[in-house]
Description:
Blueprint: E1 6-9, E2 12-15, H1 35-67, H2 71-77, H3 79-90, H4 93-109, H5 120-140, H6 149-154, H7 159-174, H8 178-188, H9 194-201, H10 205-228
Antiparallel strand pairs: 1-2
Helix pairs in contact: 3-4, 3-5, 4-5, 7-10, 8-9, 8-10, 9-10
Amino acid sequence: xxxxxxxxxxxxxxxxxxxxxxxxxxxxAQIPDTSAINRTAAxxxxxxxxRIQSETCSMTNIHAMCxxxxxxxxxxxxxxxxxxxALKLTANEHRAEDLVQDTLLKAWAKRDSYRPGTNLRAWxxxxxxxxxxxxxxxxxREVEDVDGAYAMALSEKPRQDHALALKELISAISVLPxxxxxxxxxxxxxxxxxxxxxxxxxxxxxxxxxxxxRGRTILNRSVAYDLAA
Length: 229
């Protein structure tokens, strides 16, 4: 039918005069599927919680094992005997107390090497005796210096002070007159006797004494002036 608004095409009919209207509604953004992300985060959280629980349980077990160790009861019972033996070895109350403390700490650190049923006191005495001799060997290489007097005696003064003093002395000698400088250097630096210096300077011993005395007086004044300045 050409005059009508419908054209039959097979069993269905299509409206030619009514075009398909496009929708003006804005398109919605696609929301990503977060279910996979949530599942991954939950799995990671579960793994971390499991690891923390296992670590906590292991630490708790270790603590429980330490609390249940028989040394908690046995070691304090041997403290008095250890203190008596330490006093015999050290003849000093404070050193004996330190020795007992070191022995108990070493015994606790080596608690796994102790065989139950054996003589605990003998085992502890062995540790105490070995610790005493070990400390004795160390003390022989040490020097007791309570007030620091020995350390002060071992100290060395700055070397630059000596170098500066020697430089000032040489400078002061260089300005002396030759007649005073020559015998002073021969006697003071080279170790000449007064007679040898007199022979070298071709003068009498009395003249050498006079020149050396005047030279030393000038040097003392020069050095004292430099120190005062």
